[in-house]
Input
Amino acid sequence: MQVEIITPEMEIFKGEAEAVQFPGLDGSFQVLSGHAPIISALVEGDLKVNLTENFVSDENTSATVSTEGNDKKVIRVAIKGGVMEMLNNKVIVLAE
Output
């Protein structure tokens, strides 16, 4: 599935993922590739993204993206809140 993480200032991340874990209002939840359409509000916490390929930082990737140890297929992005939408195997996160 395609994942886009966007703030009002910049695009933080864009790429392919197998799963994304979110800090939701009622606790953490996860969507997998092919998940049914969903819209949810997000609270402060970390987005955990399981990528299909190793993460490679470039000039378009925000410094707020971090890898999890030696595993380059898992990234974390700290957010202060926002909203997410999953539709047609595409996740868009509008984050603060």
About this structure: The chain has one domain: 2-95.
